[in-house]
Amino acid sequence: MTPLLQVENIAKFYGPRIGCTDVSFDLYPGEVMGIVGESGSGKSTLLNTLAGHLTPDRGAVRFDTRADGQHDGGLRDTVTMSEPERRMLSRTDWAFVHQHARDGLRMNVSAGGNVGERLMAVNARHYGQIRDTAIDWLGRVEIAADRIDDRPTAFSGGMQQRLQIARNLVTGPRLVFMDEPTGGLDVSVQARLLDLLRGLVREMGLSAIIVTHDLAVVRLLADRLMVMKDGRVVESGLTDQVLDDPQHAYTQLLVSSVLQV
Amino acid sequence: MISIQNVSKSFTLHNQGAAVIPVMHSASLDVAAGECIALIGASGAGKSTLMRMIYGNYLTASGRILVGDVDVASAAPRQIIALRRTTLGYVSQFLRVVPRVSTLDVVAEPLLVTGTERAAAQDIARGLLARLNIPERLWSLSPTTFSGGEQQRVNIARGFAYPYPALLLDEPTASLDPVNRETVLCMVEEAKARGTAIIGIFHDADARARLCNREVDVTRYTPGLAA
Fold first, then answer.
1. What predicted TM-score, i.e. pTM, was given to this entire model?
2. What does the pLDDT look like over A9-55, one tens digit per residue?
3. Which of A148, A186, A260, B133 is the most interior residue, by most CB within 10 Å?
4. Separation CA B214–CA A108 (nearest Å)
5. Contacts of B58 in chain A (CB under 8 A)
6. Do the Cβ atoms of B57 and A223 come within 8 Å?
7. Are strands B2-13 and A94-97 parallel, antiparallel or unpaired?
8. Chain A residues with CB inside 8 Å of B60's CB?
């Protein structure tokens, strides 16, 4: 089986400071990988570099592209591909769920418009079909159909986050990047969102890379885990193995510092 | 089906003076299809540690742990994920689930991830829950609020939903009343009869005598305790 994403020796520097460096891993179809670490550990820099929001100083991010009219498909380096190609990828096969829903939504456009926009970006043109698909997706993320014409500004934080997920997943991406998807939400809303994400991952066969500082979230969502400190991966492995039998001093500290409820 | 060869393990506690605690030394053990082996030994001897090493939950320092044709001690995470999906089941002592997911879905999940249709998976889950005397009115609720014994039975139902060829059981009959204990023992016997290789920890000596082909005292693999 070919990996969906192959990351080789990625590094991103901010002047003399390290954003992240020496990161390599393969992600296979259907796998969910968590990245944990304290703030400043480089996990968001890494995510944004992988997703093409930042240009790495070194390394390759190869993605298993689908064959289309112009290309044969197969593993292609997204760092060196042309800007239009990369943008096409981020509208079709990739999705990015931001920590703050307002970074991933258009706040002055209706909920239906937010979902429909991504469909139109991949050349959907039939208004009725777009609206039906939007209603279907709002239902999947548990937003009532009668809220379709409301703007996200009229939504609660949890609803905005779910709308952002609907907007991202409507085009059937194969790889989803998530930056603290449950950050800043009430625990009750968080639980519902986690269940939703797990169901979607299972049913759509999605692969995902999730950045979070919440170890309970990765335990429930991620198959594999990478622990970052000072821009480097200090430990990686099966999620439950890394959490239950941490090898690196920093991971041990992280795991033993979690408060028990 | 399961072959443990010369396996060792120690814990290094970096934040507590880098203390190194050896917990297992050259453990070896074979379990054939249809066999049930009991791990015995005093508390702290390493029964659960060995079980967690077989499941890939704890890393193995040296040696091999073959489950089918996969060496858990050296396998990549995705190989272990695949192994756990279709080959190796584990009934732990504690239930760990996503909050707010119904009991029925918790039990059906191992079937859903292997591609069973939702309706068929839920039918199997209903059958298991009924057999383990979980009242039907609880099936649509999350098991997080259930009593200890009920959670234990949900955990067993989940562990037996998919017919894994190898199964690890950590105290499956602890905290169960006699009726449910009998049901669980029958389920283990049925799994054995279908050819499942089982490694179990049972404090219940009668259960051990009834189910197990052999007992393995892990104390002889415990550094510092071995006679």
1. 0.88
2. 999 999 999 999 999 999 998 899 999 998 889 999 999 999 999 99
3. A148
4. 69
5. 241, 244-245
6. no
7. unpaired
8. none
